[in-house]
Write a structure and sequence with these properties.
The protein is mainly alpha-helical. It has 2 helices and no strands. The termini are far apart. It comes from Peribacillus psychrosaccharolyticus (Bacillus psychrosaccharolyticus).
């Protein structure tokens, strides 16, 4: 059980930073969330 939890944590820690689907800028949010646009592009 502990190994499973540790591997899950490592998985999320090692995800690359998300980039906005429109402008390509790094999205400042949790990498595992579903959003794919930065705040600037969402407001446009």
């Amino acid at each position: 059980m502990i190994i499973l939890i540790k591997s899950s944590i490592e998985f999320f820690k090692n995800l690359p930073a998300k980039k906005c689907a429109e402008c390509g800028k790094k999205i400042e949010e949790q990498h595992e969330c579903y959003g794919n646009k930065c705040d600037h592009c969402l407001q446009s």
